[in-house]
Amino acid sequence: MGSLTPLKPGDNVALIAPARAVSKKEMHAFAAWCSKHKLILQQGKHLYGRHHQFSGTAEERAADLREAWQNPEIKAIFCARGGYGCVQLLDLLADLDWTATPKWLVGFSDITTLHLHLNKLGIPTLHGPMAIHWGIQHEFTEENITRVENALFKLEVDIDNAQSLADYQISFKGRLLGGNLSLLYAALGTPEQPDTENAVLFLEDLDEYLYHIDRMMMALKRAGLLKNLSGMIVGGMTDMKDNAIPFGLTAKKIIQNHTAGYDYPVVFNFPAGHTPKNACLIMGAECTFENGKLSQQL
Fold first, then answer.
1. Which residue in 46, 127, 182, 204 is the catalytic one?
2. Which of 26, 55, 109, 127 is flagged as catalytic?
3. 117 part of the active site
4. Active-site residue 109, yes or no?
5. 2 located within any domain
6. Which one of 115, 117, 258, 274 is the catalytic residue?
7. How many CA atoms lie within 13 A of 231 on its CB side?
8. Distance (Å, rounded) from C-alpha 148 to C-alpha 154?
9. Where in the sequence is the domain holding 17, given as residue range(s)?
10. For the whole model, what pTM was predicted?
11. Same-domain status, 106 and 188
């Protein structure tokens, strides 16, 4: 993990779209941020391509990721947006020696697939806003970007989770793994399935039916991913959906039910994931949660 170094002015960074398509206009704010910090932006060949809902065919998107990852001059790869598509790239990159040129990978949501893959190889990654979010203005935009800067330029994460007094009485530490629940569920039985022994598992999701949440949590539990954690952190479980006949439980209650038999702490309402306040997390690295705050430092 020590092979990843802070970004500095003059560094080359890559921008790729490994999943859904984006427009040049949507990338303007991110490009301006790179210029502000004197980062040299290298755009993937198929960044503005289009193949149905994707930025290109799976082969084209895999080629952009391969080229950026193998280039020793590039110190970080920023993903333009999520959606769906990263899982299509893994088999196409089966021959890639990821450990030869480790670098930062930044994104969340569908990018969870790549986080899981790289973390399994011992390479930390940054779970946080994607390039498209630089141009979406709301009350937390600048705070989110500042947290990206702190993580990449200082290798520091410090997040106050003062959501409830109960959180201040919880302490745990461990290697932080996980991400989007749907993608973690999709990784079960694959090489990307994480080893969660003594880990801190982070979960978040968007726009899922409540019974899907129950199904996915049940699968994680039966696969053994929930039994030996040192702690669990639950971020945004945003815009959950229900059926005409209600499922009867909230996402929080579903997660509580599936973790009730274990003795590790579970923190809810953490400000990360598909929420306006989307704090950065260094996945695959040690984290400490104490006095209501999560901290990491490489």
1. 204
2. 109
3. no
4. yes
5. no
6. 274
7. 20
8. 10
9. 12-154
10. 0.97
11. no
